[in-house]
Amino acid sequence: VAHCVAGPSAVIGASNFFELAVATAIVLFGFESGAALATVVGVLIEVPVMLSVVKIVNNTKGWYESAFSSQAS
Questions:
Q1: Number of folded domains in the chain?
Q2: Cα distance between residue 23 and residue 54, in whole Å
Q3: 18 with 61: CB under 8 angstroms?
Q4: CB neighbours of residue 11 within 10 Å
Q5: What end-to-end distance do the CA atoms of the chain give, in Å?
Q6: Higher model confidence: residue 43 or residue 30?
């Protein structure tokens, strides 16, 4: 997989559906529930996780490009 595809894919995969999870937990369990609290904390953790994924993907850019170029040959 090329770096230009792997990087955005990893960020999208790390951030998908947190907002939907918060809304669902609040609707099903109410504002006072532990499930709603856990999903809100999950959203707060989302940004550092995405930044970590971006850093890892950028640091391993050579791995992606070397694997991609050897497959294309």
A1: 1
A2: 27
A3: no
A4: 16
A5: 14
A6: 30
